[in-house]
Design goal:
alpha+beta; Rossmann fold; 4 domains; 4-stranded antiparallel β-sheet; 25 strands; RNA-binding
Length: 766
RNA sequence: GGGCAUUUAGCUCAGUUGGUUAGAGCGCUACAUUGACAUUGUAGAGGUCACAGAUUCGAAUUCUGUAUUGCCCA
């Protein structure tokens, strides 16, 4: 017991430390553990309460027995998998009829010692002569009845089924229905007991081999064939599950779960992503009683005391003293003392304490003080694999004990898998050590890496590369900060027009992204929100904005632009803070003097949307294309950035006139003119319906230029063809909405205009 | 066997009510380097939207069937 507590404190502590290092923002003064005395107290009360309400009962049930751990498992802890085995055909003699046989097919010949009937389909004519007769169990010659039930699948095996109520769930139900005897032939550890005769004390799989051999030598084995069937194994020990009759404690779920189903379906509790509502509903509509007892020595003991051998000679009470009282009353034996009582050895399923979490973490079963303030909570973040173990049951407990939902949203994260797609687990040892990862990539880097691949409800294929990407991003931010710090600000420096325009644009972009983020956070699309922020910072802020306002080397910066840039940086830090709390907080304190802890970024308000200029945002796209064209041209013709160029333009629709000064700055243009006609001896390109010309300063690769133009013409011609296909289709023109048709016509005329420009360029090049 | 999902670029994923020749990040390829950042920059290649049918002027998107992978239940 002491060892268990040591383990708990050590590993619980490690997990908390890892969370702190990762920057989880929690109230670390108030951690709770379900074994804490106060918490435990509420769990016991709940058990007693549900027992008194008549919802907890004790019953013989077929449970999934793990012979290695020697414990009963819940349905959810058993993993069914296809496994290769043998299907044995064994013949049983018909009693009182010499040399009459019937043959059954079984995968588990060792259980024949526990057979208590043979079952055939009532309408199966092959066996109608056997109705009401008896059969002899091979090797022991015990007499068992031949019964009929339409449960039997006539197509499977021989159409005869051996019934072993103690060792098969279906047989158990069949046994109950036909009042058959139940013969349990196994011990708790999976060895054969005294019922197994000569096979006693053999392991069940050894017994199988031995019995097969004996059946063969006694002429009972007709044949055997390869067969794949579903085998249940323990999630933890991998032992083959043995169905076993056992007295267990059950919680009746049918009535309890009704509000929990209803309020997920009506959206009181929202699931993210919503697709999980389907399987939740399916489970809740077919909910089975919850086996709440476990045969473990670590956990909450079941508060039940036995005072006799009879099945109902027990009481449920909170303390031993109360149990004595209750036992005296129930049994009518006033002489009973604590010595006559024996507390149930079983403990409660751990989920039986966890399901009270949203209430009992605030001592809510005992005191209203905190729970009435905090309950219901906002968001639960958890894994879909424990939707039934935990989420559903918390909701059930919430409605039962507070009459209200425990939380408003459930965000299901993915299961973390390694590169091979395997689930990360302690037993496989394939989970990376978070501390090592954080040392390598930084806590923020690890966070970004994880969050980048966390689309709601999908698995997280973990790859260190993603953490590397996170670290690179952190580095990028840091370098952008260093750049702003390197600027010398001179109050007399006038603000360039290009900077003023860039500020307007950047402000609009931030506004636009804030709007996107609002929607993404509302839908728990965290990786998309992160990616939108990532691109805002890397592409818009670093690659475009900072390049646009960067002063010429050695020159000072004007104060208006500088101040605006600091404000943008602060907005960006606020946006990134949920993803990268450490670095953003650090820069927050460097970028402007903050005196008190109240000014910390982690409690700063989310940025206000600064407003936007949609026309400027729209012009920025063609602007980027023009910049890109000029960069490509420089590259292809080896014209260095230092060498300035003249640009002539024939503006068409969407020409980014507001960004002309930005274009001059970014592309190092010596002049930007509106050209009247064609510009002879020039390199050219088309963006939208505007054409641009750069007179040759140096030699241009004419052939490469022509190939490029040809490629673009091919594309446009293909594009035109597809539009023409639509427009020449009379039914399209008559059926499609006017707007759509108009759009197609516009596309057509734009494409034709562009094609003309390209054609004339081509002919200019000869 | 039943139910629910999934299938879009090499990888991980977006793609709202059907309407630009389907997008992003990473990866890949080529080129670039004194000036925030090679943990970088610029450019480029890369997809028969699993398959087959149906509905529609028009389908990645709707319907049917098949296959695939996964989860749940038996």
């Amino acid at each position: 017991m002491e060892h268990a507590w040591d383990w708990t404190h050590e590993h619980g502590g490690v997990i908390l430390e890892q969370l702190k290092k990762l920057g989880a923002s929690c109230d670390w003064e108030r951690t709770r553990f379900t074994m804490d005395e106060k918490y435990y107290d509420g769990v016991v009360d709940t058990f007693i309460d549900l027992f008194n309400k008549g919802l907890i009962y004790r019953g013989v049930r077929m449970v999934h027995w793990d012979p290695i751990a020697q414990t009963a498992l819940s349905d959810e802890e058993v993993i069914h998998k296809e496994e290769n085995g043998q299907l044995y055909y064994v013949r049983y003699a018909v009693a009182d009829a010499s040399d009459k046989w019937l043959t059954i097919a079984t995968t588990r010949p060792e259980t024949i010692m526990g057979d208590t009937a043979i079952c055939v389909h009532p309408d199966d004519e092959r066996f109608s002569h056997l109705h009401g007769k008896e059969a002899l169990v091979p090797l022991s010659n015990r007499r068992i009845p031949i019964i009929t039930d339409d449960y039997v699948d006539r197509e499977f095996g021989t159409g005869c089924l051996k019934v072993t109520p103690a060792h098969d769930v279906n047989d158990y139900d069949l046994g109950k229905k036909h009042s058959l005897e139940t013969i349990d032939i196994f011990n708790a550890d999976g060895t054969v007991n005294a019922q197994g005769g000569t096979y006693e004390s053999m392991d069940r799989f050894d017994a199988r081999k031995a019995i097969v051999k004996d059946l063969e030598s006694h002429g009972h084995m007709v044949k055997s064939e390869d067969y794949t069937n579903k085998v249940g194994r323990s999630e933890r020990t991998d032992a083959v599950i043995e169905p076993r009759l056992s007295l267990q404690w059950f919680l009746s779920m049918k009535e309890l779960s009704k509000p929990a189903l209803e309020h997920v379906m009506d959206g009181t509790i929202a699931f993210h992503p919503p697709k999980f509502k389907n399987s939740y509903r399916h489970w809740m509509e077919n909910v089975k009683d919850w086996c709440v007892s476990r045969q473990l020595w670590w956990g909450h003991r079941i508060p039940a005391w036995f005072y006799g051998e009879e099945e109902d000679a027990f009481v449920v009470a909170k303390t031993e003293a109360e149990a004595v009282e209750a036992a005296r009353v129930k049994s009518g034996r006033s002489e009973l003392t604590a010595l006559d009582l024996k507390q149930d050895e079983d403990v409660m399923d751990t989920w039986f304490s966890s399901w009270l979490w949203p209430i009992q973490v605030f001592d809510g079963l005992k005191s209203e003080e905190e729970v009435s303030y905090y309950y219901p909570t906002a968001d639960l973040v958890t894994a879909p694999e424990i939707m039934f173990f935990w989420v559903a049951r918390m909701i059930i407990a919430g409605y039962e004990y507070r009459g209200q939902e425990p939380f408003k949203n459930v965000y299901y994260t993915g299961i973390v898998r390694d590169k091979q797609g395997r689930k990360m687990s302690k037993s496989l040892g394939n989970s990376p050590d978070p501390i090592t990862l954080m040392e390598q990539f930084g806590a923020d880097g690890v966070r970004v890496g994880m969050l980048l691949t966390s689309p709601a409800g999908n698995d997280l294929p973990f790859d260190e590369k993603l953490c590397e990407q996170g670290r690179n991003f952190a580095n990028k931010i840091w370098n952008a900060f260093r750049l702003t710090q390197s600027w010398e600000v001179n109050a007399d420096q006038p603000q360039p027009v290009s900077s003023a325009t860039s500020i307007l644009w950047m402000r609009s972009r931030i506004d636009e992204v804030l709007t996107d983020l609002e929607g993404q956070f509302a839908e728990f699309r965290l990786s998309e929100a992160l990616m939108a922020s990532y691109r805002l910072v890397w592409d818009d802020f670093c690659s475009w904005y900072l390049e646009l306002i960067k002063p010429v080397y050695g020159q000072p910066m004007d104060p208006i632009t500088y101040d605006a840039t600091v404000v943008f940086f602060e907005d960006i830090l606020k946006i990134l803070h949920p993803f990268m709390p450490f670095q953003t907080e650090e820069i927050w304190h460097w970028i402007r003097e903050r005196k008190s802890p109240e000014e910390a970024l982690c409690i700063a308000p989310w940025p206000d949307a600064p407003g936007r200029d949609d026309s400027l945002l729209a012009q920025f796209e063609p602007f980027k294309q023009v910049v890109s064209e000029i960069r490509t041209m420089r590259k292809e013709n080896q014209i260095p950035q230092k060498e300035s160029l003249a640009l002539h333009v024939q503006p068409g629709d969407g020409y980014p006139v507001a960004l002309e000064s930005a274009l001059i700055k970014l592309c190092n243009l010596s002049e930007l003119n509106q050209a009247e006609g064609k510009v002879a001896n020039s390199f050219g390109f088309v963006v939208g319906t505007s054409s641009y010309f750069i007179p040759f300063g140096t030699a241009v690769d004419v052939e490469a230029e022509k190939a490029k133009i040809q490629k673009e013409m091919d594309y446009i011609e293909g594009f035109l063809k597809s539009i023409l296909g639509k427009l020449s289709n009379e039914r399209f023109v008559s059926s499609a909405p006017e707007q759509v048709v108009a759009m197609e016509r516009k596309k057509q005329s734009d494409a034709l205009a562009k094609l003309d420009i390209l054609k004339s360029k081509m002919s200019d090049l000869g």
